Hints:
Elements: H1 6-22, H2 28-41, H3 46-68, H4 73-109, H5 126-142, H6 151-159, H7 161-164, H8 172-180, H9 186-219, H10 225-256, H11 274-280, H12 283-297, H13 304-322, H14 326-344, H15 356-374, H16 378-388, H17 398-403, H18 406-430, H19 443-463
Helix pairs in contact: 1-2, 2-6, 3-4, 3-5, 3-6, 4-5, 6-8, 9-10, 9-18, 9-19, 10-15, 10-16, 12-13, 13-14, 14-15, 15-16
EC number: 2.3.1.-
Pathway: Glycan biosynthesis; alginate biosynthesis
InterPro entries: Ac/AlaTfrase_AlgI/DltB, AlgI, MB_O-acyltransferase, MBOAT_fam
Amino acid sequence: MVFSSNVFLFLFLPIFLGLYYLSGQRYRNLLLLIASYVFYAWWRVDFLALFAAVTLWNYWIGLKVGAAGVRTKPAQRWLLLGVAVDLCILGYFKYANFGVDSINLMMKSAGLEPFILTHVLLPIGISFYIFESISYIIDVYRGDTPATRNLIDFAAFVAIFPHLIAGPVLRFRDLADQFNNRTHTLDKFSEGCTRFMQGFIKKVFIADTLAVVADHCFALQNPTTGDAWLGALAYTAQLYFDFSGYSDMAIGLGLMMGFRFMENFKQPYISQSITEFWRRWHISLSTWLRDYLYITLGGNRKGTLTTYRNLFLTMLLGGLWHGANITYIVWGAWHGMWLAIEKAIGLNTSPRRFNPIRWALTFLLVVMGWVIFRAENLHVAGRMYGAMFSFGDWSLSELNRASLTGLQVATLVVAYATLAFFGLRDFYRDHPSAPGLVKSVPGYAMRASVLLLFAASILKLSAQSFSPFLYFQF
Length: 474
């Protein structure tokens, strides 16, 4: 089940919210847990057992770590056991196919018989709930949160359906108090509805329309320079509106239930450095990598060269987290390299003024990274890069012109106009010393526009084929 579906909008969500508000405060966490398991099982019932087993395992490990004491040797042993099992589960389901395929290629080249492994199906959301479970037991070990004895609350935290499939990556220490005591007000519910509708519009109205353009351009065997840049720019916008749209819907659903989740995006395409980009893009993941991987590796505490190494390794492993493909590893290395370079030259990563040259260079580096991220393999990426930077034929190929519609072109223009407007608005709002060139849209006009576009998006959803969220595959 996905948020952008009629089943969710007109069956699951109304029934859940009705039962949720009719039940007493005491039973709402249990109801949330049951609903989340139904939501997950709608895809595959058999993987629900794995989901529950991971939850029980980390609940038990958390109790053992907590009983052993903060940062003690016994607690460390329990922590290492818990993390090792979590990573083994993630590694098997996410990387077994990739590992066996890589070994088989080497064995075939050596004239040996390949291994035979039944294809391992990737459970949706496994990267997110494994990372959240790991953060919990690490926080218990560090003393940042006590080990909870309330299994229902912990299981509901791991399973809570608004963020279950594609984040944001939540932490138990940030939500523990909300599970015990959260407020339910009409203002919060209204805010949640508006936020959900905004995300729904991003996904259905913009991302799904641009997906067709990006898919077609990346599938061309001989793209022109125009084809390649069109595909790269379409995917750059598609990914943002798809993923930030999901995050908006997750945050909105949380507000409807009284929860306030962390923000996951902050106008990343207005960034003027790669370091700033990662403060604005997928914030829950970037802060997770910083707090549980970069700091664990030593952070910036062990010398300059070690700092550069840690930055590079953190992003390399962040790329690998996205999937078992060499393209994700290269993408992670690309960002890790630029983070290290910016650190080495002492670049100001919190600029007070908007510099068009720095912004253009950063945006170019981000777009180049998205090309390898989107490509099925290195060959496709090389084909796209070759076309982009050959600067040969800027016109679209005949195949592209035949498939491109006026609606798709208009959507791409609207997407980048929206990015520019809201990006500059937020930049100048956060930097009061800069000239206020961009003003906010009046609240009533914004709400009216959201409501009309949401209604139009529902009509569009009913008329189109299903398009899954991009981050389901991660």
